[in-house]
Structures are given as structure tokens and as C-alpha cells.
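User: Hi! I'm working on a homework problem where we have to compare a predicted structure to a textbook description. Could you give me the structure for the chain below?
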Amino acid sequence: MRIFIHNVDTFVGKILVNELRRAEGGCHRTFGTMSPGGSQDEVPAAVKRLCARDDPKKVSKMLSTLQSCKVVVLDLYSCSREDLDFAMRAFRNAEEIETDVTFILISSVMVWAHTDSKAITREPGTSEALRDSDYLHREPPAGSKFEQWKEMEDLVLSTFNREGSKVKGLIVAGGILYGAGEGVFQSLFKKAWCGEMEHAILGKGTNAIPTVHVRDLARLVRSVMDNPDVNAAEAPYFLAVDQPLRQGSETPAPLTQAELVQGIVDEMCDPFKVPYVHEPEPFAFDPESTELDAAAQAELMEKEELRLTMLLNLQMQASKQMLDPEFSAMAEPHPSGWHCKEGMVKHIRMIAQEFCETRKLRAMRVLVAGPPASGKSTLAENVSKHFRIPHHDLPADGFKQMTDTLSERVCRYRGYVLDAGLAGFDRVNKVFRYEVEVPKEPVEEGQEGEGAGDAEEEGGEPREPVVKQPEFALHDDIVPSFVIVTQAPPKVLEGFWIRSHGAQTLDKFRKQMEEYELANNAETSMHLTAFFLEVAKVGILNLPIVGRDEDELFESTRIYMEEQGRPFNYLPTEEEVATEVRERREQRFRAEAEQRCKAKLAAMKELGEAHEEDSEQRQQLRRRLIAEHEVAQQQLQEMPLRDYLMEYMIPSLTEGLIEVCKVLPDNPSEYLANYLEEHASSAAAEP
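Assistant: Happy to help. Predicted C-alpha cells:
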């Protein structure tokens, strides 16, 4: 069978492809479109052909593809009114349709958000929960996008399902979707994963929020898409909601807002009681406003949708297809076909793991070890800051408590960085392995008591008692994925220690160095690297630190940790990391320049103080030279002009004229001027 799915690369689209393509004895052929701005990498491999309508040639191809499919599925989470009109246009002319077609529109219970169940006439004694047969009474929140969703639902129902029509129009409305990376609940899971204790319960928190796993929604679509028992004229609407049971009750009831929010926090975040806050006002924004960019508009819309979801209060009953014991029986491994029947909180660990896997969030478990003064603590701190994972120090004792800490929910999902300090084989073995009970060997009948307590062998020699060695197993869920060991020669480490702690504490350094070498004796197999290489089977990065600064050591560590791909983990982008490193280096260079400037000023000050003693003598010499110069000038001024010329001018002029006569230059005046200038300079240089 040929199936067309709108926007196969979206949150709902990818699950629809996965769930609808399977058939008895093979697979259905799947076609579809890709969302605007989507990536080809997100398109499931099972999709045979991608269609588009961005030019006339592609439009005709897409129309023919639609008309060739027996099932067409669109979801309002990623579908616009134009998308729906285009898809419906392919089936408006009955003569162009060769076979019966099932046209399914996926919607949400948010279209029912303001439905008054008490206004619906019921038989006495029946439940007031809304059911799919009440679809004519559904009422969306005023002013929300769900008003348009209801109009699109009504358009499908009124266009198809007419007498003689080959198109069967169905609506499948799901509870608030979760799972496979999350939709509207994504921000709640993100805050919990990041350890941001910003969750809040709006109002009293007792309002009921019907939910459904996106896989169970897709399985209901599969149950009705080609079911001959489905009468679209009488029952075209279907509800997909979980069936959580409260303790002591056999009647399913939706989880409350408080239960949902607290359940997410309790599984993924440090334990804290989520506070109750007043209901916030609607987020007022104009979709056509130019004051906010597209990203800001989208963020406001997401916040408003989350607010409406958290205030939803509906008691709803799932369609009979979901309550059937044979519901989606082809689904594996659940025999009933349900993926998450009891609701999100009951299966919160599975949902959290799906969220991490889909969002490419990886637990980064890191151990950093090395000798004293090798920079391991600074490196561990930088790793913790960059990868946003908890930072712990390995204690000298209390290993069971350390194991429990690394097994906690935060480390389970985000990982940790453990500063192992001076640890060797013994300490990490006590943290990452546990002793298992060795089963006793069965004693054959007749052997018991017959020589059982014999302490001698047949030859009469004493027999040594057999002592069984304890067996150990790894805590696989907490063993580090990355092990970094910093390295440097002891003399270099001693210099680093003096620089940071002072020479007066060298005894402490030598004591720690002795402890580290004793715990990591290379001549035995009882050292830290042997544990991870031979027991835990984890590769090790031996990180030399000589000639490398803090940034270079971290960059080597980061490359090692991202060798098999960079985890998403809400980390800064490569550009942001480069900018941060550049700014940090500039700050360090400025600090070093300031230090050099201060040292230079201090040296100049010291030099000035050294010369302060003879400053008076220099002043006296200066005053004496000035006085002698003034006396000489005074004598020259008092000398008669004739005497001045005869003494200072005539001899030089006479010699110059004689020189001109000897040389006979082309320009005698210029030659004489140069001669007198040179003579004056040489005379001034003479003492």
C-alpha cells in the first residue's frame, strides 16, 4: 500500500513513517514532503520519494503522487492552511480518483480545551469524561492558534465523507504529545537535564492534562487508516490519550499538572520541591509585528503554548480502538501494542532516555588523575564547566558513598568529572566494582561427612584449606568513558609546586609525590591505568603538561572526548568556544603585561633610590658647569670686535682661502662655506 505523510522530517512525521510503514509480510511504500528549511539528514531512509510544490513541475508531480496513495496523513503540528488546501485539491474531483482513499488529519486535544463537558447530555450514571463522539461540542481557547486548527478539522469533515465519495476523512486528536525528544514539554526536560531549577506549577496544579506518547498516537492512526469497520460518516473523530491508573482505582484518569512537572524533575534533576506560582497572563504578541525577529516570535509562541497546556483541564476517554486488547498488535515488544499505556510518569525513565537519545544528549563520564602539581584539578574544573557536568573529588575513604553519588539521577543523564587525585588501583576498584556472591559448589550425595572434615590427604600429608578468591563485577552504568592522566617529570612538578605554593611547603609535595608513586607503581599491575585498561577496558589519554598552558591542555582533552562525535548537550558552538578561548588568552596577556609593567616600575623606583645619595653632587656639578659657561659667554660679549675677529675668524678664513687657491673648485664660495663649517665643528670638538 502507498502512504503519503506530510513533513516526514518533523517530530511527528518521523514517528509516523516508522509506525505506518510496517505491514504483514513486508512494508508499505512511503512518500512525503520535507518541512521548509528542513535537513535531508532528518528524513527517514524508508521514504521512497520526497515531493515539493515550489515550482510548477514539482506541483504536478506532487499531485499525481498524492492521487496514487491510498492513505494521506497530515499533522497540524507542522501543517499550514495552504498545505491542507493543496493536499485536499488532489481529491476534490472524484473522477480522478481510482481507488478509495483515507485522508487523516492529526490534531490535538487542545482544540477541546474550553469544552464544557457538563453541558453535554449524558445518560444517568455515565462518566462525564469527554469522548470522541462529542466532537461537535469541542471548543478551543479563544484567540489561540487552535481556533484555526478547529476550522481545518471542520474543513476536512465537511469536504469528504459525502455520499458517493471515495475519500474517507478522519481526525485523530492526540493528548499532549511526549516522547521521542518531546514537543511542548521539551523546555521542561531541558531545564531538568541542565539542572536549572526554574520549574513552576501554575495555580493549584490539580488540573488534569490528558497526554499520549507520540508512538501510541501513530499506532491509533495505523489502526484506523485502512480499517473497513471505520464508518467515517458516523464516527470520523478519534481520541488518543493515555490510560494512567491511580493507586486504589481501576478507572483511568489523566495526570495532574503537578504530577507531570514534579515527575520530570524527580527523574532528571537534583531533588527539589517544585514551587507553586500564580497563573501568568497570556503572552501578548502580534505575529505580524516587525518589532521582534522570527526567533523571538517563535519563543513567545512556544511559551504561550506551554502556558495553555499547563492550564489544560480535561477528563477524556480514549477511542475504543485503543481500549481493544488487540490494539496495534503488530507493535513490538509490547504484546498489547501500547508503547506507554500507563502514562508519562509511570514510564518516566524510558521517556527521559528517549529525550536524551533524540536530542543527542550524552552522559560524559570523565576521570582525571595524575601526580601533585600536574594541573589535574584545574583541568577537571575546566571540563566540568565546558561540558556542564557535575564536578566531584574522589575521597580517601567513603567509597560506597562515592559510588552512590555517581549513580544519582544527575550523573546518570549528564555524567560527571571525577578528580581522582593521587588514587591508584585500590581506590578506583572500590568505587567502580562490587563484590558478587560466589555460588557454592553442589555436594554430591554420599560425600557429605565422608572425609569432609579430613585435613589430610592419602599420603598423610596435611592438606591446605582451599580459600576462594572473591569475585568482582563492574558498575557498568557509572564507569567513566574517558580517563585522562596528566604527566610530567618530578623535577618539573616540584618547580610548579614552588611557583604556586611556595618553597616552604615542599615537604607536603614530597609526601604527596611519594603517596602517588606508591599507589601507581609501574612495576606491578596494581596501578590506576591498569584498572581501566585491563579491568574496565577503557582507553586512557596520557597527557604531558610540560610546555603547554591551561587552554592547550583542555583543548587536547576536548578533542579526545569528542573523538567519536561532539555531543549536543546544549553546549556552546565551536565559534563561541573559540571566542571564549581568545578572550581568555587576551585577559591573560593583559594581566602578564600589567605584571611586567609593575615589575619595571618597581625596578625603576629601586634604581632611583640607589642614586638618591649622590643626587646632590650631580646638582652641584651641574650648577658649576652652568656658571663656567655663563662666565665664558660674558667674556666673549665684553671682547672688542677687532680682537674677536683676529682671534676667532681671520685664522680660519685665511686657511680657507689658501685651501681654495690650492684646490681651485668650480664653486669657490660653496667650497669655502663647507670648509669653514667643518673647521668650526672640529674646533668645537677639541678640548
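For your comparison, note the following. Residues 450-455 have pLDDT under 50 and may be disordered. Residues 296 and 302 are 10 Å apart (CA to CA). Good luck with the assignment!
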